[in-house]
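User: Can you fold this complex?
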Amino acid sequence: MKILPGGICQAGTTRVNKTGGWRNFKPVYNYDLCIKCKLCELLCPDSSVIPREDGFFEFDYDFCKGCGICENECPKKAIDMVLEEK
Amino acid sequence: MPRENKLDKEKMVVVEGSYAVAHAVKTCRPNVISAYPITPQTHIVEDLSQFMADGEIPNCEYINVESEFSALSALVGSAAVGARCYSATTAQGLALMHEVLFNMSGMRLPTVMTIVNRALSAPINIWNDQQDSISQRDTGWIQLYAEDIQEISDMTAQAYKISEDKDVLMPAMTCMDGFILSHVYEPVVLLEQDLTDKFLPKYEPEYTLDPKDPLSYGAFADPNYYTEFRYLQEQAMQNALKKIEDVANEFYDIYGRYYGGLIDEYRTEDADIIIMAMGSVIGTVKDVIDKLRNRNVKVGLLKVRAFRPFPADAIRNVVRDAKVIVTLDKNITLGLNEGALCTETKSILYNTDINVPVIGYMLGHGGRDIKVDTIERIIDEAHEVIRNGIKTESQFIDLREEIL
Amino acid sequence: MKEIRVHGRGGQGSVTAAELLAVAAFADGKFSQAFPAFGVERRGAPVLSFTRISDEPIRLRTQIYEPDYVIVQDPTLIEVVDVASGLKDDGMLLINSDFDPETFDIDTKAKILTVNATKIALDIIGRPIVNTILLGAFAGATGEIQPESIMDAVKKRFPGKVGERNAEAIQEAYNMMKEARI
Ligand code: SF4
Ligand code: SF4
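Assistant: Here's the predicted assembly.
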């Protein structure tokens, strides 16, 4: 890869760098407990909580790095961190 | 190639140096101006504000800010979207910009900023020396120094052309001595709009920030990449060496005015003593040289116009056959007891076949007037060096021993 | 080359006087240069400004130490500043005062002239602003500069009635001092 003067690069290139592989634990929703408060979406540092049509959310495991913030912040304990099988 | 600088008295008007600069900026058709007023730069930004208020600078935004740091930061963003940018500052204001100077040059954003050279505090001093811009010499900005108000106004257009060149893309400081040039009234040809339109093409950057096609500037370079960015910046500076010469010639072809490219020479042919200096002291030195030449003293002047990039080859060519080189510095590298021009001149002669002694004088700090007899005394001492070798390599020449 | 030093107090327009002199000299076909020696920028403090006039382009950037002419806007400065410092023997010292030149005990061989610029200013302009009037007196006394050039420069700088009145006062001072031409 050649570099451009000034460190200019296409924006959004982190898309190609799928950081999901860093994960040891992955978050899993329990939709029975979820009240759609959106906290997990707002607080995920990697924008890996994706809203669905029905108001619930799902995880983008390509980029979720398994930090567990969503689990920690969920007021309804609707997220479980489960060991990833690799 | 020495060129005749034609004086066109018909076109001249007597105005203040700051006004001449502001007018020059106007004719360069800037898109964004952002500056914070500070003595002795104030008149430039006041005049530009007046032009803006009078609607004389079309397609331009004047951004009022709360500090110099913000002024230059605003221009980083503006330059990235493809705007032709201008600012002006001095001394503490320039020091406050220090971090942003690196950002601007690192992102390779062309810009022109007039530095109205002034001493740095403490103690507080609002008068002229060149410590402010000299202290920024490693920030990746081109630095040009002017000897009179005609040169500083013409240099403004030249600096845009150099800075915006695709092989350069580095921001440029045009430096004028505070008060001595910013507040002097003298005859000057105000930069001609029609000629400037001919000389300076529209700025058309290859990359620009645009929400429709997003880019990231200067984002991140880890140890695998950072070195190469520094290398590219240095290459750009080396390219600027040629560009500064070319642009001075192009300027001459269109406007008929010339002050040298990287350097200029005055009566250096056959000179035993070559004085090297930058800025407004040049005029006084020329007068002294004429006086001494009448007495058959073989003395000449090498005016350093470009301090960054440093014109090593151009200087070597001129000083090769001299018997002594004398540098004049309105700055000091504390802890080395030398001015920057002295240090750098010595450095470019080492490892070459040129063996000419260099002596340095630090003078004119904090607005101390540089008198004719001071220059004459320096030339006397240079003779002494030719006869008996160097006793003191670098020193203050105008020290008031009685108050120490 | 002729070198002129103007002594005044902050707020009296001595910097403006030096500038207008440069503008007028250029209009006369000479080269010129005017610059201030800024000190503490406050009202009432002694200030200096300088003008050089020459047939050749002016390169010299030092302050003026051996003036051909000195203009003193405020006679009270004579007690606090050596206004004649370096003044050439064949030069001239022009003081704004209602006293005769002989009343001033100044150490100089140069000719001393006085002009009651404050009175002219009050009579014609209605305000005690003397800087432009002293330029008229200077032109009259020395012949170094055309009074019309000064009047034009002043009218351009202060358009309208103010400029007109100033021009009238300049003419008055010029006529008065022409008699005393050195
Ligand atoms: S574990 Fe971390 S990265 Fe993954 S979805 Fe939750 S907050 Fe986002
Ligand atoms: S934080 Fe918990 S309750 Fe709130 S939306 Fe996310 S999963 Fe549902």
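Chain A touches chain B through eleven residues (CB under 8 Å). The mean pLDDT of chain A is 93.
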